Structures are given as C-alpha cells and as structure tokens.
Amino acid sequence: MPNMIVCVKQIADPEAPPGSFKVDEAAKRAMPAAGVSQVVSPFDEQAVEAALRIKDAHGGKITVLSLGKDFVMDVIKKPLSMGADELILLQDPAFESDDSHATAYALAMAIKKVGEYDLVFCGRQAADWDAGQVGSGIAELLGIPSITPAQKVELVDSKIKVERVVTDGYEVIEASPPLLITVSNELGEPRYPKLKGIMAAAKKEVPTWNAQDIGADPAKLGAAGARAKVLKLFIPVKEGKCEIIEGESLEEAAENLALKLRETRLI
Amino acid sequence: MAEYKGVMVCGEISDGKLAASTLELLGGGRGLADNLGEELSLVLLGSGLGDLGKEAIAFGADKVYIVDDPLLKDYQTDAYVAVMEKVVKQVAPNILLLGTTSMGRDLAPRLAFRLDTAVSMDCVALDIDPDSKLLLQTRPVYGGNAKAVYVCEDTKPQMAAVRAKALDPLERDDARKGEVSAIEAGLDPSIIRTKVVDTVKEEVAGVKLEDADVVVTGGRGMGSTEAFQELEPLAKALGAAIGATRPPCDNGWVPASLQVGLTGKIVSPTLYIAVALSGSSQHIAGCSGAKNIIAINKDPEANIFKEARFGVVGDYKKVLPAFTAKVKELLG
Ligand SMILES: Cc1cc2nc3c(=O)[nH]c(=O)nc-3n(C[C@H](O)[C@H](O)[C@H](O)COP(=O)(O)OP(=O)(O)OC[C@H]3O[C@@H](n4cnc5c(N)ncnc54)[C@H](O)[C@@H]3O)c2cc1C
Ligand SMILES: Nc1ncnc2c1ncn2[C@@H]1O[C@H](COP(=O)(O)O)[C@@H](O)[C@H]1O
Fold first, then answer.
1. CB nearest B150 (choices: A30, A230, A253)
2. Which of A180, A248, B206, B326 would bridge A258 by S-S if both were Cys, CB 3.0 to 4.6 A apart?
3. Can you list the domains of chain B with their CATH numbers?
C-alpha cells in the first residue's frame, strides 16, 4: 500500500476574467482583485486526483502539503474532502518567496519530515507564476527520479507505469518507487467532494509546520534561498480595436465578414 | 569560480534534422553572443548524429559539441541531466538556452536544480542588460495576463527555456566556419531509473497546427464532436489546420494534440479564426503571435473581441455555414 504525498498551492482563481487582473508593479506581485476567490491550483487538484485513483485501486495513505500564507481553510481542505488523509500547512514568514528553489527546498525538507513515501505528486505548474519547476526541483533535492507531466499513473505489480504527455502523443514510462510525478489536465476531471468528505474534512485537525519544524537551513529559504530575481512585472498593453462586422441578418454579417477578409487580402 | 563564457544552446533532433526550436535558439543565441562578444555553441545529445554538427554551424554556431551514445537515443531525464551536467561543467557557458519542448520542459528545471542555478521556463524574449551584461528573461506569468522579466544574478550558467517561435532562425549559410568536437557521454547505465516502454503518436492528418498559416479554432461553445466536424469544410477551403481550446480536448470532442494555449501548442498564423471561444488569457498565450484574429462569438462582451481585428457577434450555428459558403464562393 503506497504512501503518497501531494503538494498543492492555494492561488487566486486563474480563470477569473482577464479584465479583473491587476499587478502592483512596485511590489512585483499580482493585486488581490475584489470578487476573485482563492482556489487550489487546478493542476494540483488533478495531482490529488491521480493519488486518489491509486488509493481507490490499492489503498494507501495520502498526505497533502501546502506552503503559503493567508490560507482559506475551506479551500485548502478541498483535497481532504476529496479523500486525502492528512493535510499539513507550511507557514512561516521565513518561507515567504515565489522563488522555485526556495519553495522546492522547503517542500523537500517537509517531505523528509513526513518520512516514508513511495510517490510524490505535484501539478505540472502552479497557475499563478506558471513556473513549472518545483516538481522537478523537489525530486532533484530528494535524489529521486521524476516523470513530467503525466496524464495517467498506475501501479502495476510493484512498478509505477506513467503516461507522459509529449507533443502529439505520449510515452509510457516505468519506474520503481520512490518517484515524483507532475500531473497535467489530460488526466481528467478531479472528483467532486462528497458531503461526507466535506464534513470529515471540516473536523480534521490540520498541523502547521514552520522552518524549525522541518529542520530547514534559513540560508536556503525565502529571499536568501532565491536563485532568480523578478526585475519587472507588467501587463502588456493591447490595442484592442475590433471591427464588428454587421448585416441585416447574421447570415449577411457572415458573408460580409468573408468579403472583408477578401478585401483585406486575408483570404 | 571558473570563468563562465559563451552562449550554449542545448539542441534537439526531429526527423533526423535539427529541430525547428533548435534553429530558433541558434538564431537568438547568435544575437546574444554577438552582443556579449562571446562564442555561440551547440550541444547535441543523441545516437548516430552524423553530420548535424555542420548543419548547426551553417545556422550560426561557432562550436558544436556532439555527445553520441546509444544510451542517449531517446530522451530520458536521468541520462540527459547527467550528461548535460558534465558538459556544462566542462565548457562552463555563461548562458544556456533550451526549448520549451517536451524535452526542455522536463530537462531544464531538473538540470538547473542539479547545477544550483535558476532557469526561466517558456521565455518569449531574451535581452542583454547593457549595464550588468546579464541575461534578461521575459516570460508570461499569471496565465499570460502579465509578463515578468527575470534575471539570475549570482549563479551560472544563466538558463532560459524559450517558447516556440519567440526567436528567429538565421538563413542557412554553408560558408560559415566552426568547429565540431566530441564529448564522451561516460554514462553509467545504472543511473537511469526510468524506462520508456512505449511511445504512442497521435498525429492528426492534414496541415500541421504549429506550422499552419491559417488556423480555425473551436471552443467550448461548439458543444460536441459533430460541431467540430462543421469546421472542416471551412478549414479545407482555407487550407487551414483545426485547433481547439482546452475544454473540447478535455471533453474528448477532439484529440488533446489540437489544444492551443499556454499548456498546448503555440501557433502564429497569418489568420486565426476563433469560433465560440471566450479568449481566456491561457488560450491567447498560444495564439497571440497570430497576425489577424477573427472572432465569432455570441457574447459581445467576450474577451476575444479585445484580441480580434474583425468579429461577428452571433450564434456560430448561423454564422459559420453562411461564412463558409461565401469563403468557398470567393475562393472559387
Ligand atoms: C494553468 C492553466 C493552463 C491552461 N492552459 C490552457 C491552454 O493551453 N489552452 C486553452 O485553451 N485553455 C487553457 N486553460 C483553460 C482556460 O483558462 C479556459 O478555461 C479555456 O481556454 C476556455 O475555453 P473556451 O474559451 O473554449 O470556453 P469558455 O470560456 O467557456 O467560452 C466559450 C465561449 O463560447 C461562446 N459561445 C457559446 N455558444 C456559442 C454559440 N452557439 N455561438 C457562438 N459563441 C458561443 C460563449 O459566449 C463563450 O464566450 C488553462 C487554464 C489554466 C488554469
Ligand atoms: N507553495 C506551494 N505549496 C505546495 N506546493 C507547491 C507550492 N508551489 C509549487 N508547488 C507544487 O509544485 C508544482 C509546480 O509549481 P511551480 O514550479 O511553481 O509552477 C505545483 O503544481 C505544486 O504541485
């Protein structure tokens, strides 16, 4: 029965209308927008789903780790309500950084503290900074193999069989645990939590670990542990001049569109 | 600290030739190397690489390092990371460029962590800062809603994985001079902990989406597999490839290989006809290089009208047949 760890990040809903998105250019951060809710980053929900499918078939235990601040308990507990067993929050001002190295280091140290694990799951990228690195980084720091990004994960005898998404298809890759896998949307929809799961999750105690709890070296956390620096964050300007083609009827508008494309030599 | 010098491209092979992404990296890398007054090199990992070194020189490289080993026949994380670690330590490049490809997406972050340096994934622009001479790495963030410029100040090499079509290849010039040398892979097979047991291709017939000059893309509003078939006569008349937003792929109406966007294909056609899709930032990330976007959407407030040059507001079920018929008539 495999021990599984899933890393999930709480972020602002990435599918909020583009018009509501604002950045604080001085702080180089996105500004919280009114009415935009917090969610579990979508690929991370799929990572939870991948672990749950293994658990459905073979049993085992799923521990969810999330590093961040200002957690919304109803949101971050979603993996528990979907069926994960434990949730541990990593919260400490020392952790604060969007840097992939600092984040992967803290998560890798927390995974070591959890102890036994066969499979570690991450999303292919967190849908805020879209960095796409932390999964591979954790694997490298733990010294375990990684397969990225996956659309299917199965346990066959004692081997892990993964379908890795590549351009125009996929590869079937086998490995033995321990193994880190990042998950892509091709895996399919994550399950909806059931009422029973939501009630159980609401009651569940959620421990919080700080830097000292995971034995982290302060020089590798936060700004000190960062390897990349954001010099500038900005919203590109768009011209946004669309000419709406009209007509007496929609059919005529459609014909006028074709004529317009002809006139402008686009067809 | 050793002196890190030169711009290195980690190349890829496709159908026995240098991949399009590699030619783009050589073109962009040439500009960076000239700006810094440094050399441009290409490192190529594979098995039976033949004359590809010469080709790389014709496309801009001063030096080519060939690592030819049967164990490198197909991309495998552990093998490629180990060999690239060795090459980087030996050559000590100042800048290392990869493609945001199936290989680069997997290799770049793992290699960066092994070398304890930073990498920026999916870069759309690279520049040299005139003062610091450091590599400025611009990449879309927040699903394409914003862009960020990254710099790696303290560690080397400065690494970037670059998005398809962000850089321009040079014209092939066989008169260009350069040097090809070999590096031993020196791989211990036991370090390779994963095994590729099968490769499944899902290629779509007709014009290749990423190369097409005209793309007709359907969104969630299409509603079904059958509806997507209605795009075919239009695509046929225009010699276009068919694309999709993510929901039609996730719903199984079309193969996943048709997805255009941040986590799908990057297209830059002359004409991009967007039917029944809202124009989410993550989708636009894949087609913002299109020269002319045409939108057909029943919601006048849809974001796609902020991206489009021409548009019709209305139900595609009414618009599309009349549009297709007229296009066919005009094209004779
Ligand atoms: C990290 C991340 C990565 C992502 N990567 C991608 C990606 O690579 N590619 C991608 O596409 N998406 C991606 N997405 C998903 C993306 O956020 C959107 O959910 C998706 O693009 C929406 O697709 P859509 O526009 O087809 O659907 P919707 O947003 O639902 O829009 C449907 C549109 O169709 C119109 N419509 C409906 N019926 C009709 C009709 N009969 N006639 C005319 N118009 C009609 C509606 O007005 C609406 O505007 C990603 C999301 C995340 C979080
Ligand atoms: N703060 C975090 N807490 C937990 N998991 C994270 C965090 N940041 C990144 N991850 C995991 O790493 C994946 C890739 O993130 P990134 O490299 O930041 O795009 C995410 O999909 C998560 O699974």
1. A230
2. B326
3. 7-191 (3.40.50.620), 209-331 (3.40.50.1220)
